[in-house]
Amino acid sequence: MTAPSVTNPATPGLLSFLRKDTVGGGLLLIAALTALVWANSPLADSYFAIRDAEFGNAAWHLQLSLGTWAADGLLAIFFFLVGVELKTEFTHGDLRRFRTAIVPITAAAGGVIVPAIIYTALLTSYPETLRGWAIPTATDIAFAVAILAIIGSHLPKALRIFLLTLAAVDDLLAIGIIAVFYTETISLVPLLTAVAVIVVYGLIAARFQTFFVERAWAAWVILLPLGLIAWALMHASGVHATIAGVLLGFTIPALASRRRRGQDRQADDDDRPNLAEVLEHRLRPLSAGFAVPVFAFFAAGVAVGGLDGLATAFSQPLTFAIIAALVVGKPLGILASTWLVTRFTSAGLDPSLKWPDLAGVGLLAGIGFTVSLLVAELSFIPGAPEHDYAKVAILSASVIAALLATLVLGSRNSRYRTAEGATLDVDHL
Question: Membrane spanning segments where (predicted)?
């Protein structure tokens, strides 16, 4: 969503470039491939030395490696934007109306449950791997939307809305899973203090929304320090620090504040910006152009050990389970749950959508990548064989799912383009 011109009517070209879905996905892919090549080159030791270098304040539980700073810190920016987008959707977007939202919400739930079941079923004989059951439940919004933008020029607009809603709910479920199942010990004092700071953050954002919208520097000077304090306290509590990003995003007002007395009340209120739009507009380039690619760079670097190493990885039940859960489980869960909710309730699909279109979206949802890599980091000890096998599986599954989705949706796009051309020809007769 693009913020109104009151934010900055002369946005630099680079920032506009970084806001494009295709650019964010491309940078993510480049970062991951660079890390993978570097980690398997003669200079691999330098990559791991950089990734594992530690700095920070030990007293605040913040003496972390660069890789951990990227996963816990930079990725919080990404999750902040997820929180902002969800707030917008729940306030005046597709999640506001139950009948409109129930189908993609149910599809997202199916896309989380079925992959988890497949993963667990395939690995019941390997209890040491079961902690990673949530790895195949995530969808990478950046990659999925980027691919749809590249190949879907003639696909129904409702398909993109379906994917965005599904991916947003999927992220919300993934966030809940991380908070509940991947938090081992909780320190109540830092946690309660973090919640208190987040509440204050939200109250200030709501009370002075117009001030933050009209003055670009204000959010950096006032809201950012409060957000950093909340993040640090959340990290110290034992709850994964990215949860602070989501909660902070949820506090941002997604409806424009009332006009101040003396302003023109006849103007269209819908044209006035809200803080959610403005912050999303300002932070999107930082997230897509820096935070997420840097995380991918440090998370995707796994030494596969050449062809022999790849052969070993692909012979592991863990690798097979993750690939099967993402590539098969995701589309199966999405299609099955969509069919059930449209068959047995009054909810229905948008008339412009066909089941082959949803099959392509289901495959796109199998691109786990960012959040799947994060869950893999939380599931297995870095350096353990399972840790590396999981990453190989995530990268492989994401590539396979992307290729299959491209084939399906590319074919559908050609059909829609042909149909549109035929309609135009008839109209010109």
Answer: 22-40, 60-81, 101-121, 133-151, 158-182, 188-204, 216-233, 239-256, 286-307, 319-341, 361-383, 389-409
